[in-house]
Amino acid sequence: MNGATKAGAYVLGLAVVFGGALGVGRLVGPIGDAVAETSHDTGHVSAGPAKAGESGQSAAVPGGLQISAGGYTLTPRTDVVEPGETVDFRFTVTGPDGRPVTRFSVEHEKKLHFIVVRRDMSGFQHLHPELKDGGVWSVPLTLPAAGEYRAFADFAPEGASGMTLGMDLSAPGDYRPEPPAAPVRTAAVDGYTVTLAGDLAPGRTSKLTLSVSRDGKPVTDLEPYLGAYGHLVALRDGDLAYLHVHPDGEPGDGRTAPGPAITFFAEAPSPGAYRLFLDFKHGGAVRTAEFTVTAGGAAVPAPESTPGVKESPSREKAPAEKDAPEASHNPDDHSH
Ligand SMILES: [Cu+2]
Fold first, then answer.
1. Coil, helix or strand for 324?
2. Most buried among 60, 110, 288, 298, by the most CB within 10 A?
């Protein structure tokens, strides 16, 4: 990449960051409004020099940004959940015929994967709601602290291709967002160390390898979880676009080892920072390791050097060091 291109990409990166920040600020509103706002943000992302020649919104909108796509719409019974209270959260997926969808294909051993995370990327949860009569999905849900949350439903209606729809949930109260996490390739969780190799690349699929060790020894007896040795969710910083990720190989296929390495292919839609959440199972429990990576290398400034986006005191903070006690980057707080 030459200097001029790099400078252009840098400016694009800032535009994405600021566009995302505006989006977050505006997301306090009815869910219906959020659709238009995310479309607007997507316009920012695709309007840059990297995609010059395309007009406005690209056909390939990343998953999770829309509450309705391809004729399917997420309809929650409520979008407000009191922080700290466990509620029976219910929603339906309405199909092109206007009725709740009742038949879903099984993907990764489940008919629907439900991911919930606060807008600041804290408090990640990966849940599996139960399908009740009439196409009603039900799941016990706790939003641990006040704030704006994003919930993703990852599913495939029978006879249709897979999709991820997203909706906003609010936990009323005093919300103090966590500062963005600095890029980190090694995560510690429950005594395990998980190391990430490989880079996300904007606009194409790339290979990511996560290696699990414990007490300095590679873990070679990972347990299958959701039909794989790991389940990876990747979200774009700024708008929480939900990336398409799939594992390379599965337990019992004769070529995939139960650790220490778990390999995925992930597609980053644009340069910028992404948060990765790896669920893996060992010792009978599912654990989540979290990483922050930057797609496009130095083209986008790391959070520490982004001018004007946040105050300097946050720069010294590691993700685990919080001012706000209600924050839940602590892996022990994650629900599984
Ligand atoms: Cu799942």
1. coil
2. 288
pLDDT digits (tens, 9 = 90+) for 174-211: 999 998 888 899 999 999 999 999 999 998 899 999 99
Q: Return the bridge partners of 163, or none.
A: 155
Query: 37 near 23, Cβ under 8 Å?
Result: yes
How close is the Cα of 10 to the center of ligand 1, in Å? 35
**CA distance linking residue 133 with residue 297, whole number of Å:** 48
**Ligand 1 centroid distance, CA of 196 (Å):** 21
How many Cβ atoms are within 10 Å of 28's Cβ, its own excluded? 12
Bin 167: left if φ > 0, else alpha if -120 < ψ < 50, else beta. Answer: beta
Q: Which CATH number fits domain 186-321: 3.40.50.150, 2.60.40.10, 3.40.50.1360, 2.10.260.10?
A: 2.60.40.10
Q: What whole-number distance in Å separates Cα of residue 298 and Cα of residue 310?
A: 19
